[in-house]
Amino acid sequence: MHVDEKTVRRIARLARIKVTDEEARGLEKELSGILDWVEQLNEVDVDGVEPMTSTVAMTLRERDDRVTDGEKAADVTLNAPMSEDDFYVVPKVVE
Amino acid sequence: MTDLTKLTLAEARDGLKAKKFSATELTKAFVTAIDKGNGALNAYVLPTPDHALAQAKDSDARLAKGEARPLEGLPLGHKDLFCTKGIRTTACSKILDDFKPPYESTVGQNLWDAGAVMLGKLNNDEFAMGSSNETSAFGPVINPWRRTRDGKPDNAKLVPGGSSGGSSAAVAADLCLAATATDTGGSIRQPAALTGTVGIKPTYGRCSRWGIVAFASSLDQAGPIAKTTRDAAIMLRHMASFDQKDSTSVDTPVPDYEAALTQGVKGLRIGVPKEYRVDGMSKEAEESWQKGIAWLKAAGATIHDISLPHTKYALPAYYIVAPAECSSNLARYDGVRYGLRVAGKDLIDTYENTRAAGFGKEVKRRVLIGTYVLSAGYYDAYYLKAQKVRTLIKRDFDLAWDKVDCILTPTTPNPAFGFGEKSGDPLAMYLEDIFTVTVNMAGLPGISVPAGLSSEGTPMGLQLIGKPFDEATLFRAAQAIEDAAGRVTVKDHWWA
To answer: Do A56 and B336 touch (CB under 8 A)?
Structure first.
């Protein structure tokens, strides 16, 4: 599978990673190489095979629907690069 | 007094109980060794001597009162992928910056509750993505082992394996008694093999993932790297637990693995899979594999040829599943809630600048691969297909368990390699995990144990793969190999 530079830029945009022109060219080659290599999976017949969802057969545990944690806004925002009165501060989103 | 740093975890435990030395003396010996040696090895990204000495003081008080806990006063290294309350945790990425978690990982808490002492945070590949520790934002770790060429010492620096390269190097260089590590595709076993140490990745669900920086959630497991099989058995017992805070944690009792070591391997059925004889495998790996077969046979085990036909598809399937999960997990690094922020002209620009500056090359590569295989129109062809292949890989093992109790393979195709030898070619680096990655894909336990030295004088490792939750059998078989092969230790402490 060949990934062209335009596709690299589209994926990078989806992943919210800014790439330079030079990076985009390098990634075009690297990503194509990796995707070519995984193509060998096409040799495997997976007709009627269920996709794996868990390696260990188990059902997801349930717990009582009640509040067990919280009231620690200071802890939550402790590591924020910018915060004010227990809110995260970001550039203006709405005009 | 003998050099306390050279003791095994079990010897140090027994020495403390017999009051041959104090926890403070033991901890000071490691603090001094780290002071002297870490500059050259770069195993620790954050030594925490004050924290360690405070814990040791508390341990001495308990030892004096006869209230010692199972790991009382034993100094350990802690991989920087584990969150430590109030102590910087970075996953060796710039994007976490000066992150100080307000909570402790469950595995870490279990160890401290058992009385262990934390010497500091250990280096690893960025977000555990790598097989040589070369992708760390703090720079690479140096393997304490060096090659000999034609019988003469060769001072070229070797990689300690990865991603738990700080853990493997610190244990091999006596900069801790044992270390925590994590394994998503081989990150405990491969570095253990390259440094002459013992590393076990337990069954998926055995150790809680809570408080471990996530890479690929369906594959990530914590486990120890230690000097001996016995030490690894002691460590795993106190790392593992059922945990409500991890929905994939399995509620099953954790056995006394150390007690299992005396059971031997008489009558144990060992499988040897023909598909692990791959192109590009060194003659040495083949030789140590044959030696391993002979050792287990001599100890009373029986050897059986088995087939795991989907083995060769495990690595390509892994490089769909792991990047897909990593691209989802790493979406949280947005420059808003914690870590680095690089301001942009608007919010999206801020996200893009932050992630461009904060993530290293390999991490970006994997996030982009993951984003691609999960993007509209490709999900079925890649991710769903890979998860179906994964079912077939697990089925191969399920069928093998009818005939054998555990499986013996080499851990890596080659002994330790030099810096830059593989870092320029992502696919060459990915092949390092060819023998280990199947185990993560099937959720099984796997252990790497030293099997002597290569012709270059560097360690070789053998891997044993076990049934789900049957780590005890792996420890028994690993002990038989260790008894036959003998421990390998670095003779020349050139870093000290």
So the answer is: no
